[in-house]
Design a protein that fits this description.
Radius of gyration of chain A: 25 Å
Shape of chain B: globular
Number of strands of chain A: 0
Largest interface: A-B, 25 and 29 residues
Helix content of chain B: 55-70%
Largest sheet of chain A: none
Number of helices of chain A: 11
Structural class of chain B: mainly alpha
Oligomer: heterodimer
Order of helices and strands of chain B: HHHHHHHHHHHHHHHHEHEHHHEHE
Shape of chain A: extended
Strand content of chain A: under 5%
Distance between the termini of chain A: 74 Å
C-alpha cells in the first residue's frame, strides 16, 4: 500500500506546528516589545525645533532657574511655555545678530509665537497638575530627567500609566525636601527610607490607596 | 437506558462496519444533494453578508445604532449572547452526558451536538466583543503584562465571562476534534482510495483528489487506529466530556450570578442558576433535534438516525419542557409568595407590560410545544420533533430578551424610564450571527462526517449481528497467503490481517511471548477501540487521567494564585468595600481556567503518548492497511533488532486454529 505522505512530510508538518506555537507565543511578545520601544514612546529622541534651544547651556551652564521661563509650574496645572518676550529679555542685549536666533527675532517682530515641537504629552483623559507635584516635593527631574544635561531636549520617560503609578503607589521613595525640588541631579539620599515617610506626612500626601484611586487622574 | 424505549431498533441488523463508513463518508466525498446544498449555502452566505454589514455599521457608528440610548444599554446583544451560549451549553451537555453515561445510541446525535456547540460558541463569542464599543481593545479584559501596570478586576463576573468563553471555546474545539479524529482517518483513507483510483484512470481531477486526501490526512494527524491510540483516545474523549460538563455548570451559573450580582429586581431568584441551566440545555437539545432531523431528511441517513433516536430526542425535549415549566411556575410562585414588591412588579410587567408579547412567546414556546411529545406518534414524526425543537429555541431567545429587557427598562430612577422598542439593527445583527452559524454548519456538513462513524460502528458491533457475520464470511472466503519473498528492501516487520477484534486479540495473545519487547514491538490496528488486545500488548493500566488532573490542578491553582497575588498584593484596590482577599470571587474563573488547561494537557498527552502526529509511518506500507479504518484488523510486529525471527512469527500465526486467531493474510513489510 502506498503512503499518502512522503517521509519528509512529517518533518515539515512538525516544523509547521512548532512554528505555529512559536508564533502564538512570539508575536505577542514582539508586539509588546514594539509598544514599549523608544521608537513608539519617543524616549531619548530629540526632534528638530524652530530654534535649537539648549537646556544644557541656559539652565545647566548659565544657571537660569526653571521658573524663569516655566513661570507657572508651581502655581497652576500647566508649567507654561515661555513667550518670545522671555527670550528677548536677554537676546535683545546679547547675540543680537546671531543667525541662529533669527526665528526668535522674527517671532518678536511679527508678534507670532514660536511653534515648539511638544515632547511631553499626556492623553486628554489624564488630569495632571504641575503645581501640586512641585509644591509637594516632587522634583522636575523625577519625570523630565536631567534636563540641564540635554543639549537638545528629548523625552526622558515614557509617560505610561505604570510610570505614574510607580510613584503614586509609593510617593515616599521619590519625595524631596522643598529646596531639592529644582535640583536636576538629585539622587535619593542615604536616609530616604526614614526621610521619605516623614516628608510625606509633612506634605500631607495621602499615599497608597488614595493616590491610586482612578479619579485622582481620570476625572 | 435504551431498554425501555419504543420505536424499533437503534440500528438495522444488516449494517456492517464498511457500510456505515460508506454511508457517512459519501457525504463529504461525493457531495450528494449538491444543488440543494449550494442553494442553502447561498442563503447562509447572504445572511453572513448581513452580519458583515451590520458589524461594519456598528463599528462605524458605535453601539448607539442598537436604539439603546436608554436604560436597556445591552439592547439585544447580551440576550443574543446568552441564547447562543445557552445553545452551546445545551448541545455540549447533551453530547458529554450521553458519552459519560455510555449511551450506545449516541452516535447519531453526538457529532451534530458537538458541532452545534462549537459553532454556537463561535457566534456567542463575538457578541461580548462587538458590544465593547472599541472591540479592537477586547484583550483589555484579559490579564496580560501591560504598560498601565493594571490587572483586570478578578472580582468582576465580567472577567469570569471572558475566561469562561475562552475556556468554553477550547473545550468545544477539543471535544469536537478528538471525537472526530478516527472518523477523519476513515475519511482520509477513503479519499486516498478514490485518489488512487483517479490516478490509475488518469482522471483530470486526480491532483485535486490527492490534495483532498492529504488535507484530511493532515487534519487526522496520522491516526493509524492502533490499539494504543484507541486506548488513549477513549480516555481522552471521556475526560474532555467530563471537563465540558463541569464547565457548562460553571458558565451558566456564572451568567446568572452576573445578573444576581446587580441590584436590579427580577434577577435574584435562587432558582435562577437552575433555570438558566435547564433552559440552556433545553434550547440546545431543541436545536440539535431540529438539525438532526434536517440532516436525516436531506442526506437520507435513516439507517443511522433511526426512529428510535427521534424518540429519544423527543423524550429528552419533553422532560426538559416539564423542567422548564416547573422553573417558570416556581419563579412566579416564589416571587408572589415572598418576593419583594419590585420583583413582583417585574413579573407583572413581563406579562402585561410593553414587552408582554415577547414574554408570552417565551412561556408558550418553552412550555407548550413539548407537551405534544407525550404522544408516541409525534415523537417518531421527524417534522414534529424539528418543529418543537425550533419553537423551543425561539422561546428560549424570547426568554432571554424578557429576563434582560423587562428588568432594565424600569430601574430605580424614574428619569431613566425611556422606552425600548424593536431595534432593527439588533435584529439584523442576530440574523447575521445566524448566518455565520449556518455558513459554518453547511461547510461542516459538506466536508466532514456529520454522523459519528466510530460510535455507529461500536453500536453496530454491539447490536447488529450482521457485522460479525459479514466479517466471518469474508474470513472464510479468504485464503492464507504467507509472503515468502520480502524483496531487497530491509525488513520493517511482519503484518497479519484479521476479520475481527476477537481474532486479533487471540493472535496477539499467542505471539506476545515469542520475542522479548526489545526485539519486537507488537501493535494492533483496527476501526474500533480494541480493549481485548491491551493485555497482550502490555498496555493495560495506561491512563491519561494523571495528565488531565495535573493540567487542571496546575492551571486552576496558577490562575487562583494569580488572582490572589494581583488582588491582594500587587494591585490593591478598594472596590465596593470588598476585602483585600475576596477569595470566593476567584473560584469561578479558576475552575473555568482549570478545565481549559486540563483539556490542553489531555490534547498534549493524546499526541505525545501516541507519538502523533506521524503522517508517514511504515505501518501504512502494509497491503490493504487502508481498511484498518474500515472493517479489517491488523497485527503488526515491528522488528527492533536483528535477532527478530520473522519466520518463527509467521509459523506461529499460521499454526493458529481458524476460529481462534488464524490471520487472513500474513505479509512481510519493507521499511
Amino acid at each position: 500500500m502506498a503512503q499518502l505522505f512522503t517521509p519528509g512530510a512529517d518533518a515539515i508538518y512538525r516544523l509547521a506546528l512548532m512554528t505555529g506555537v512559536a508564533c502564538l507565543v512570539g508575536l505577542p511578545v514582539l508586539a509588546a516589545g514594539i509598544v514599549r520601544s523608544n521608537y513608539v514612546t519617543g524616549v531619548g529622541i530629540a526632534p528638530a525645533q524652530p530654534v535649537p534651544f539648549s537646556h544644557k547651556h541656559h539652565s545647566g551652564e548659565l544657571g537660569i532657574d526653571c521658573r524663569y521661563c516655566h513661570t507657572t509650574v508651581d502655581k497652576v496645572a500647566s508649567a507654561g511655555i515661555p513667550p518670545t518676550h522671555t527670550c528677548m529679555t536677554c537676546h535683545s542685549q546679547i547675540w543680537t545678530g546671531s543667525d541662529m536666533l533669527k526665528p526668535v527675532r522674527d517671532s518678536y517682530a511679527q508678534d507670532k509665537p514660536l511653534e515648539w515641537v511638544r515632547l511631553n504629552k499626556l492623553p486628554q483623559y489624564v488630569y495632571y497638575n504641575h503645581s501640586v507635584h512641585v509644591t509637594k516635593g516632587i522634583g522636575c527631574s523625577t519625570c523630565h530627567g536631567e534636563v540641564t544635561a540635554m543639549q537638545m531636549t528629548y523625552r526622558a520617560n515614557a509617560f505610561e500609566m505604570q510610570f505614574c503609578l510607580d510613584c503614586h503607589r509609593a510617593p515616599e521613595k521619590y519625595v524631596r525636601t522643598p529646596d531639592e525640588v529644582w535640583n536636576m541631579t538629585w539622587k535619593p539620599p542615604a536616609d530616604q527610607a526614614t526621610l521619605g515617610p516623614k516628608l510625606v506626612a509633612e506634605y500631607h500626601i495621602r499615599g497608597g490607596s488614595r493616590l491610586t484611586e482612578c479619579g485622582i487622574c481620570h476625572r | 437506558m435504551s431498554g425501555a424505549l419504543a420505536g424499533g431498533p437503534l440500528i438495522r441488523p444488516e449494517e456492517t462496519l464498511q457500510g456505515i463508513g460508506g454511508a457517512v463518508t459519501a457525504i463529504p466525498l461525493t457531495h450528494p444533494r449538491n444543488r440543494r446544498w449550494w442553494m442553502a449555502f447561498a442563503g447562509a452566505v447572504a445572511l453572513l453578508g448581513v452580519f458583515a454589514f451590520t458589524l461594519g455599521t456598528l463599528l462605524y457608528a458605535g453601539p448607539g445604532v442598537w436604539a439603546n440610548n436608554n436604560a436597556v444599554v445591552w439592547a439585544l446583544d447580551i440576550a443574543s449572547y446568552d441564547w447562543w451560549i445557552g445553545v452551546a451549553s445545551g448541545s455540549l451537555l447533551v453530547s458529554a452526558v450521553l458519552l459519560l453515561l455510555g449511551a450506545e445510541w449516541r452516535g447519531a446525535v453526538n457529532r451534530i451536538a458537538e458541532t452545534l456547540a462549537l459553532l454556537a460558541t463561535a457566534s456567542a463569542g463575538l457578541y461580548p466583543i462587538i458590544h465593547l464599543g472599541r472591540p479592537w481593545f477586547f484583550f483589555w479584559n484579559l490579564p496580560y503584562p501591560n504598560t498601565y501596570d493594571l490587572w483586570p478586576q478578578f472580582r468582576s463576573p465580567l472577567l469570569w465571562d471572558a475566561i469562561d468563553i475562552v475556556a468554553f471555546l477550547v473545550i468545544c474545539v477539543s471535544l469536537w476534534f478528538i471525537g472526530m479524529l478516527p472518523d477523519l482517518a476513515t475519511l482520509r483513507d477513503r479519499a486516498f482510495v478514490e485518489a488512487m483510483r483517479q490516478i490509475d484512470v488518469k482522471a483530470p481531477t486526480r491532483r485535486l483528489a490527492l490534495l483532498r486526501a492529504q488535507v484530511y490526512g493532515i487534519v487526522a494527524s496520522g491516526w493509524r487506529g492502533s490499539a494504543a491510540h484507541w486506548q488513549i483516545w477513549v480516555q481522552a474523549y471521556r475526560t474532555v466530556a467530563l471537563l465540558g460538563v463541569l464547565l457548562v455548570v460553571s458558565v451558566q451559573t456564572g451568567a446568572s450570578v452576573m445578573l444576581a450580582g446587580s441590584l436590579m429586581p427580577g434577577w435574584h431568584s435562587t432558582l435562577l442558576p437552575v433555570t438558566f441551566l435547564v433552559n440552556a440545555v433545553y434550547s440546545g437539545v431543541g436545536i440539535t433535534a431540529a438539525i438532526v432531523v434536517l440532516i436525516r431528511v436531506v442526506y437520507g441517513l435513516d439507517s443511522l438516525v433511526t426512529a428510535r433516536h427521534l424518540d429519544v430526542l423527543g423524550r429528552l425535549l419533553l422532560g426538559l419542557g416539564c423542567a422548564s415549566a416547573y422553573c417558570y411556575a416556581a419563579e412566579y410562585f416564589d416571587t408572589f409568595l415572598n418576593g419583594d414588591p419590585e420583583a413582583r412588579a417585574v413579573l407583572v410587567r413581563r406579562l402585561t407590560g410593553d414587552h408582554a408579547l415577547v414574554s408570552w412567546t417565551a412561556i408558550l414556546g418553552l412550555v407548550l410545544p413539548a407537551q405534544l411529545l407525550w404522544s408516541a406518534r409525534a415523537r417518531t414524526t421527524p417534522l414534529a420533533i424539528a418543529a418543537v425543537g425550533l419553537l423551543v429555541a425561539a422561546g428560549a431567545y424570547a426568554d432571554h430578551v424578557t429576563v434582560l429587557v423587562v428588568t432594565l427598562t424600569q430601574d430605580f430612577l424614574p428619569s431613566s424610564r425611556l422606552p425600548y422598542g424593536p431595534d432593527p439593527w439588533g435584529i439584523a445583527t442576530f440574523a447575521g450571527s445566524l448566518g455565520l452559524f449556518l455558513t459554518l454548519l453547511l461547510l461542516f456538513l459538506r466536508y466532514l462526517p456529520a454522523v459519528s462513524i466510530i460510535e455507529s460502528r461500536r453500536l453496530a458491533l454491539a447490536r447488529a449481528p450482521g457485522t460479525e457475520a459479514a466479517a466471518r464470511e469474508a474470513a472464510s472466503r479468504a485464503t492464507l497467503r504467507p509472503e515468502e519473498n520480502p524483496g531487497p528492501a530491509p525488513l520493517w516487520g511482519v503484518s497479519a490481517t484479521f476479520a475481527s477484534h476477537a481474532d486479533l486479540a487471540a493472535a496477539l495473545q499467542a505471539v506476545s511471548g515469542i520475542s522479548p519487547p526489545d526485539h519486537v514491538h507488537l501493535d494492533g490496528h483496527g476501526p474500533v477501540p480494541m480493549p481485548r488486545t491491551l493485555r497482550a500488548l502490555g498496555l493495560e493500566g495506561r491512563s491519561i487521567l494523571p495528565y488531565a488532573l495535573a493540567g487542571a490542578l496546575i492551571g486552576g491553582a496558577g490562575f487562583y494564585g494569580m488572582c490572589v497575588y494581583a488582588t491582594a498584593y500587587d494591585y490593591v484596590f478598594l472596590i465596593g468595600g470588598r476585602p483585600r482577599l475576596s477569595w470566593p470571587s476567584f473560584v469561578v474563573p479558576s475552575i473555568s481556567f482549570a478545565m481549559m488547561t486540563g483539556c490542553i494537557a489531555i490534547h498534549l498527552a493524546l499526541l505525545v503518548l501516541n507519538r502523533l502526529p506521524r503522517l508517514n509511518h511504515p505501518a501504512f506500507n502494509i497491503p490493504g492497511f487502508l481498511r484498518a479504518s474500515d472493517d479489517r484488523f491488523f497485527l503488526s510486529a515491528e522488528a527492533r533488532s536483528d535477532r527478530f525471527d520473522a519466520a518463527r512469527f509467521e509459523r506461529r500465526l499460521t499454526g493458529l486454529p481458524v476460529e481462534a486467531g488464524r490471520p487472513l493474510e500474513i505479509r512481510r513489510i519493507p521499511r
